[in-house]
Design brief:
This protein has 267 residues and is α+β, with helices and mostly antiparallel strands. The chain contains five helices and seven strands, in the order H-H-E-H-E-E-E-E-E-E-H-H.
């Protein structure tokens, strides 16, 4: 699905398959959906195991959304577009099915803008330096009221691999809230620059977590008929306009005082 009003990015599946073949075989089942369910479920239920000999940066955090699990589950599928996710260009369902025990299994392909640091751009093909393909697997268990997602990049994964696992469940302290446990593993196998890529990936990931939560809150507020809180850009714009008005008022006042002082000189 391509968002209305958003720039269209061609999702060439042959190209994606080629990129996928370069990413440790994680998408081996994309072209065979009938075999993908078991693989997908195993992946979501198993913690990340780093590539032998590769250093991995690990990040973990727990966030809380003050909305019920049911509301968050619905918002998850409607969270794009929002003012905090302008980098997400397209989202396409690769496959989706319901298991015999009523769990919803999905795999989606997301296309995002991804500006690489200037020092890394010459290591990337021109068409990949500012665009990234992301795979997202998810399992929703309505009986246990849990949703587990796993995302990873299939673009330039040899330079830097970012894998994220999220578990959405009912908050134990407040049944009307939803808790999100987020884990991320950032690795790079590029000799000599692996640490630099990992540090860059970790810093970017930490920054994106805040935007992701803000985006969720924005979508949830709209779903519940509330006025979403203003975005940082909107707040900054208003502050800039207010500062401009204050400056103009101060300038006019200064002109008035100068005019009065000039008149007194001639009296």
């Amino acid at each position: 699905m391509v968002h209305p009003g958003m720039s269209m990015v061609a999702t060439d599946l042959e190209h994606v398959s080629h990129v996928a073949s370069q990413s440790n075989g994680k998408l081996a089942n994309v072209s065979r959906p009938e075999n993908a369910t078991n693989s997908l479920m195993r992946q979501l239920e198993t913690a990340y195991v780093g590539i032998a000999g590769t250093m991995v940066k690990y990040f973990s955090c727990i966030g809380v959304l003050k909305s019920s699990w049911d509301q968050v589950f619905i918002a998850f599928w409607q969270r794009y577009p929002n003012p905090y996710s302008n980098h997400v260009l397209t989202e396409d369902i690769v496959f989706r099915e319901v298991t015999p025990d009523n769990r919803l299994i999905s795999r989606r392909l997301l296309t995002k803008t991804s500006r690489a640091p200037r020092w890394a751009e010459h290591y990337l093909p021109v068409h990949m330096a500012r665009c990234a393909y992301i795979m997202e697997d998810s399992i929703v268990d309505p009986q246990a009221r849990t949703m587990t997602t796993m995302t990873w990049n299939i673009s330039h994964a040899r330079l830097m691999s970012v894998e994220e696992r999220c578990v959405y469940r009912v908050n134990q302290e407040n049944g009307n809230w939803t808790q999100i446990k987020r884990e991320a593993w950032i690795s790079s196998s590029l000799y000599g620059l692996s640490r630099a890529f990992q540090e860059f990936g970790l810093a970017r990931f930490k920054s994106s977590v805040t935007k992701t939560m803000k985006g969720f809150e924005y979508v949830l507020a709209k779903m519940q008929g509330e006025t979403p809180s203003k975005t940082l850009a909107e707040t900054a714009k208003e502050a800039k306009e207010k500062a401009r008005e204050t400056a103009l008022a101060a300038t006019e006042k200064a002109k008035g005082l100068a005019s009065q002082a000039q008149k007194k000189q001639y009296v």
